[in-house]
Design a protein that fits this description.
By secondary structure, this protein is an alpha/beta fold. It has helices at residues 17-29, 35-45, 51-56, 62-69, 88-108, 124-136, 160-168, 185-189, 198-212, 215-218, 237-242, 266-273, 284-294, 313-319, 326-338; strands at residues 8-14, 73-78, 113-115, 117-118, 143-145, 173-175, 224-226, 274-277, 299-300. It has a single domain, classed as Metal-dependent hydrolases (TIM Barrel), CATH 3.20.20.140. The longest helix has 21 residues, at 88-108. InterPro entries: ACMSD (IPR032465), Amidohydro-rel (IPR006680), Metal_Hydrolase (IPR032466).
Length: 346
């Protein structure tokens, strides 16, 4: 079969020198004390680590690596935990600089890079304004939110100006994992707080709270994106619907939710409002199952570079995607979701 599509990776991380300096300062002066982040910083972001140069290199090393793997475009997003780990003033002050930096890189390589805006949920109104600027002035195609912000989720209505702006500007919100909330001590006690397990638990729980909060009834056109094949949610669709509260089995079902939902089942919201990517999950059989659960229009490719940079995962992923679906999976779904209108590839 002749390849009639481009390959777009939709969860590809980067950092800016400004954020590296802010991370370093926060760890050294103790203003960032979250134990999960401090551990992640030492592992991934400290000046002598392997990943940091790869996160900072957006041209000389990255583009040849993309070519070698057969990837035509990266949709770039500031790596976790982004600006959300900082105090409000620091985060809001850095927000436009990070997005302007990203746009400058895209301008130098418009066929190789697209991007997601960074925001500071610590100030929902400022973030809402930045979402509008990112779409209308910077031509960015979505928003990256690294799950909780100081142990708070988007299900809290104080963050809903962000959701309102994202819906109004058709900016999908990619919820990327970070370390679980500090109260979940068992995750760090047993070393399962990062990508091994804790990331998926934190994000999937976050997404369920958004659904159950009524946010997707208030903002029915809002789009969310979850990586790692949906952080486990597609596997649970039947269980969610079956275990919804009912009067005949109240001891086994959900407790009554005070928020009235418009759609009958939790799975209806997941299938309507959520798109999933394959970041870090290239195994063919899970891809087939997730596609069956979510529909072929709601699944798209991601590598999760540079945390995952195995060139063999591209042909492995191909095995999970039928030929008739490949163009949607690799290119068209990403184009439509993230507003990628121009040429893609070298």
């Amino acid at each position: 079969m002749t390849q009639d599509y481009k390959r777009i990776g939709t969860e590809e991380a980067f950092m800016t020198p400004l954020v590296v300096d802010l991370f370093k300062k926060g760890v050294e002066d103790g203003s960032i004390s979250d134990p999960g982040f401090v551990g992640m910083y030492k592992l991934l972001f400290a000046p002598d680590t392997v990943k940091l140069p790869l996160l900072l290199d957006l041209e000389e090393g990255r583009i040849p690596e993309m070519d070698a793997a057969g990837i035509d475009m990266h949709v770039l997003a500031q790596t976790a935990p982004g600006l959300q780990i900082f105090d409000k003033d620091t985060a809001v002050g850095a927000m436009p600089d990070v997005n302007d930096y990203l746009v400058d890189v895209i301008a130098r390589h418009p066929t190789r890079f697209a991007g997601l805006a960074s925001i500071a949920p610590q100030d929902p109104e400022a973030s809402a304004r930045e979402i509008e600027r990112a779409r209308t002035k910077l031509d960015l195609g979505g928003v990256m939110i690294n799950s909780h912000t100081h142990d708070e989720w988007l299900s809290d209505e104080k963050f809903w100006p962000i959701l309102e702006a994202a819906e109004a500007n058709d900016m999908p919100i990619y919820i990327h994992p970070q370390t679980p909330m500090t109260g979940l001590k068992a995750f760090t006690d047993y070393g399962i707080d990062l990508a091994f397990y804790g990331f998926a638990v934190e994000v999937s729980t976050h997404m369920l709270t958004i659904i159950l909060s009524g946010a997707l009834d208030r903002f029915p056109k809002l789009k969310f994106v979850l990586g790692h094949l949906g952080e486990g949610l597609p596997y649970w669709l039947y269980r969610f619907d079956y275990m919804q509260y009912s009067t005949d089995r109240p001891n086994l079902k959900m407790r009554p939710n005070p928020v009235k939902r418009e759609l009958p089942n939790i799975s209806d919201y997941i299938r309507r409002n959520i798109w999933i990517t394959t970041s870090g999950m290239p195994a063919p059989e899970p891809i087939k199952f997730a596609t069956k659960q979510m529909g072929e229009d709601h699944i798209l490719y991601a590598m999760d570079y540079p945390y995952e940079m195995d060139r063999e995962e591209v042909p492995m992923t191909e095995e999970g995607v039928p030929d008739a679906q490949k163009k949607k999976f690799w290119e068209d779904n990403a184009r439509g979701l993230f507003h990628i209108d121009g040429p893609v590839g070298a």
